[in-house]
Design goal:
This protein has 12 helices and 15 strands. It has 393 residues and is α/β, with parallel strands linked by helices. It folds into 2 domains: 123 residues, Alpha-Beta Complex (Aspartate Aminotransferase, domain 1), CATH 3.90.1150.10; 257 residues, Aspartate Aminotransferase, domain 2. It starts with a helix and ends in a 6-residue tail after the last helix. The structure holds pyridoxal-5'-phosphate. The site of pyridoxal-5'-phosphate has 13 residues, from helix 4.
């Protein structure tokens, strides 16, 4: 991988040590140009002219095809969304729930998993069961806790592929195997998945996987995709609907809904420039290759964990080795509040990380473009904070 050549295409990394791709990735020039070009094309050529409308459809189709290829699914199983949370809501609120059904999730989850689940609990009488894990639970421990939590009433397992707070990669295939043949749906929050680790929907075997374009894929805000396994499509009824939901309708109250096409989730007008950026982001990623990106990110994250672990007063809370690891590295500095450490590193050194909660810490997202030098700078900055005199309690 030509890291320097790739970095030259990412303007943000010329200006700072960027360790926050898990929140939002820095777009490369081809993505920025694709958005600009499309916006100009629409603005200068009649935004509703037949050519512009037709090419907008073509961009959406290509984006779906590109995402489908990236995750080994069919384009008929991919809906374009604006972000991960939207896709999770589409599924959760569109399935036929019965009072007493149980959703099993875990305590490390992002609010985008917990809050839609709690909302459903209040609205539809389902019960949310929270499995208690720690940031360095092993896959064996996680699988056995999920196995214990499943009951004949379990209707869904809903969790992140990669936990945002600590980077723990969940044993989703093993959990899937536990649920198979028991009428249990599997919905995955893939916010930290695409552009970070290799994805294969057929291999995972989940029913639903929701993902963003704006994080590790380095696409623009306002882009994402939802995978719905073909066999599940008819079970999910859109909750927000527009004219694409109708197979036929008239002005007299007659209406036949579309049931068997992913197009039923397209609500109304969207932004073709952003879709063009999303498409280009997937292409940019594919030119490097998911395996190459994942291996590089893992290697650089391991380098950072080793450096941090050697600093007195610093504790890495992310998994240290094994299949649980990813490019997300979370750590604490004794006597320093995570938000203060994040602010100090940004202000004095232009190093961008973020504070996370549950468990609380400083999170560095280590992406393929992060260099050895940037990792050394981050570790040095942490060493400085760890050594600084602390106010007496
Ligand atoms: C695990 C997880 N879920 C959901 C989200 C929200 O993602 P989005 O902004 O794409 O809705 C994030 C964002 O950081 C996340 O890490």
């Amino acid at each position: 991988m030509d890291i320097e050549g790739l970095r030259r295409q990412i303007p943000t990394v010329q200006k700072m040590a960027y360790f926050n791709t898990g929140w939002e990735g820095p777009s490369p020039v081809p993505v920025i140009e694709a958005i600009k070009e499309r916006l100009e094309y629409e603005s200068y050529n009649g935004p509703s002219s037949p050519e512009v409308l037709e090419s907008a459809e073509s961009i959406a189709r290509q984006a779906k095809e590109a995402v489908a290829k990236l995750v080994n699914a069919s384009p008929d199983e991919i809906a374009l969304t604006e972000n991960t949370t939207e896709g999770l809501n589409v599924v959760l609120n569109g399935l036929p729930w019965m009072a007493g059904d149980e959703i099993v999730t875990c305590n490390l989850e992002h609010p985008s998993v917990l809050l839609p689940s709690y909302n459903l609990q209040q609205r539809a009488g389902v019960k949310v069961k929270v499995v208690i894990l720690s940031s360095n639970s092993t896959h064996d421990e996680i699988v056995s806790k999920f196995e214990e939590a499943l009951t004949p009433k379990t209707r869904m397992v809903f969790l992140s592929h990669i936990e945002y707070s600590c980077g723990l990669r969940m044993p989703i295939k093993r959990i899937r195997r536990l649920t198979q043949g028991r009428g249990i749906w599997m919905l995955l929050d893939g916010a930290q998945g695409p552009g970070h680790v290799r994805l294969d929907m057929r291999d995972i075997g989940c029913d639903f996987y929701s993902m963003p374009g704006h994080k590790w894929l380095l696409g623009p805000d306002g882009t994402g995709a939802l995978y719905i396994r073909k066999e599940m499509l008819e079970q999910v009824r859109p909750v927000r609907v527009g004219y694409r939901f109708a197979k036929s309708f008239d002005q007299a109250g007659n209406f036949v809904p579309l049931t068997d096409s992913i197009d039923k989730f397209r609500v109304s007008t969207t932004s073709a420039p952003l879709r063009a950026g999303h498409l280009e982001a997937v292409r940019f990623h594919q030119r490097i290759g998911s395996d190459t990106v994942e291996q590089r990110s893992l290697a650089q994250a391991a380098r950072l964990k080793t450096a941090l672990s050697a600093i007195p007063g610093v504790r890495v809370t992310s998994p240290l080795e094994g299949p649980e690891c990813t490019g997300l590295v979370t750590f604490t500095i004794e006597g320093v509040a995570p938000a203060d450490a994040v602010a100090a590193m940004w202000k004095t050194q232009r190093i961008l990380t973020r504070a996370v909660a549950f468990p609380s810490g400083i999170r560095a997202s280590v992406a393929f473009f992060n260099t050895d030098d940037e990792i050394a700078r981050l570790a040095e900055a942490v060493r400085g904070l760890a050594k600084a005199p602390k106010p007496r309690a």
